[in-house]
Design a protein that fits this description.
By secondary structure, this protein is an alpha+beta fold. Strands 2-1-3 form a three-stranded antiparallel sheet. A three-stranded antiparallel sheet has the order 4-5-6. Strand 1 and strand 2 form a beta hairpin. The protein has two domains: 48 residues, no CATH class; 69 residues, 2-Layer Sandwich (Double Stranded RNA Binding Domain).
């Protein structure tokens, strides 16, 4: 598959936060295998639990439009090497706009090797902000 599908862990978190759009992809919860709609239809009725898996842009759009959580991936250079940082902006519980960039335990900004890895991290972090 050439599409950029969210990872299994992100799909689980998205499901728990109420995300569902009727995607064309699913994960088998037991094997973590990514399957398409056609195979999912075949599994329907069997004792297999499926979790919706979407393209990253679909989840990012849902976070932005439905949850008011914006994810930004920034490209930067350090000693001739390109890396990516992820940031979130969202409305906090005090109805104020918060801006957050991913940092490790020592509060050092986290650099990601690719845009896709940074975006996946941003999606996971954005989902954790949603209160159910």
């Amino acid at each position: 598959m050439k599409t950029d599908i969210i990872q299994f862990e992100t799909a689980l978190l998205a499901r728990d936060k109420g995300f569902f759009t009727g995607s064309n992809y699913y994960y088998d919860i037991n094997t973590e295998e990514l399957i398409d709609n056609e195979k999912a239809f075949y599994f329907n009725g069997l004792d297999i639990e499926l979790i919706e898996a979407c393209e990253k842009y679909e989840l990012q759009k849902w976070l932005r439009d439905k949850q008011r959580i914006d994810i930004t991936v920034i490209c930067d250079w350090q000693k001739g090497v390109r890396f990516y940082k992820v940031g979130l902006s969202y409305v906090n519980s005090n109805n104020e706009i918060d801006i957050w960039f991913s940092r490790d335990e020592q509060r050092i900004p986290i650099n990601h090797a690719t845009y896709e890895i940074a975006l996946e991290e941003g999606l996971k972090n954005g989902l954790t902000l949603i209160e159910i």
